[in-house]
């Protein structure tokens, strides 16, 4: 039986990865910043597995992206590392290094621990933000894994910089200092789908915001989107398929506009006050002068990005799931749990 060190197991995506790894017969050693969350995370993953008995193969360790302590010990005796841990806030911090530094430092701690412990298989969770944060090269119609976000370009946000710089650091280290490491990067888009507990991240919070009817109008933005179960499956399949070694694999179903999300949810909950009118660009830009969260999206207004998911479909052996179902699944979870 293979043992996988899964960093950031408290995360929305990571809990789904853990459940699928356990169902696939692996043992999972999950890292978290505080062991006080063991019971909470164990209970969440129990919801995602097909048989509760597999939880006997789940263990935990304490790691922090910003501290050296524990990393080498955590990596000892494992067969592979899946590194998911990275900050993803709703709004950008005042100092972008609050995002960039822990993302890059955590990535380097994970991959150096792999090298030190002679773990030669590493899968990292990056993002489409590391691919599509810059305009498409001239003549190209869709982003693919050959594209990289130019972090020096004006308008590139802190999150995109953090994911790009962290991923580049991993590839550079593997190439120049640890060529024995077989690296794969999974680059999901905007991830949606029912969480396994109420400790979820920014993407699910967007659906929560729509359901709460907090906004009278919606911005003209959108995201290359994907279901969380597909993202987890890509990590597990990459682990099992040597053809993924040395590859970046973008996890995207399709581009979805914010207004589409709102319309789908409104159709499911017609009695809720959910905005489906698109705001003029000028209004959003004006609001961005006073609201940092709004300011963060102004560069995305009216932009429709296409992404080539051929590598992901080849790895999965099927098309990615319709993201609309993941959106509605997310909304139903939030309503059924009386979160909104």
Give descriptors for this structure:
single chain; 340 residues; alpha/beta; UDP-galactose 4-epimerase, domain 1; 7-stranded parallel beta sheet; 3-stranded mixed beta sheet; 12 helices; 10 strands; globular; oxidoreductase; NAD(P)-bd_dom_sf
Give a structural overview.
- The chain is built from 12 helices and 10 strands.
- By secondary structure, the chain is an alpha/beta fold.
- It has helices at residues 12-23, 38-48, 71-75, 97-116, 158-176, 202-212, 228-240, 258-268, 281-288, 292-295, 310-316, 323-336, and strands at residues 3-7, 27-32, 58-62, 80-83, 121-125, 182-188, 190-192, 222-227, 248-251, 254-257.
- The N and C termini lie far apart (42 Å).
- A 7-stranded parallel β-sheet has the order 3-2-1-4-5-6-9, sandwiched between helices. It has a 3-stranded mixed β-sheet with strand order 7-8-10.
- Belongs to the NAD(P)-dependent epimerase/dehydratase family. Dihydroflavonol-4-reductase subfamily.
- It holds the Pfam family Epimerase.
- Residues 4-241 form the NAD-dependent epimerase/dehydratase domain.
- Keywords: Oxidoreductase.
Main sheet makeup: 7 strands, parallel
Helical proportion? 25-40%
What's the SSE pattern?
EHEHEHEHEHEEHEHEEHHHHH
Outline type = globular
GO molecular function: oxidoreductase activity, acting on the CH-OH group of donors, NAD or NADP as acceptor
Organism: Cognatiyoonia sediminum
InterPro entries: Epimerase_deHydtase (IPR001509), NAD(P)-bd_dom_sf (IPR036291), NAD(P)_dehydrat-like (IPR050425)
Keywords: Oxidoreductase
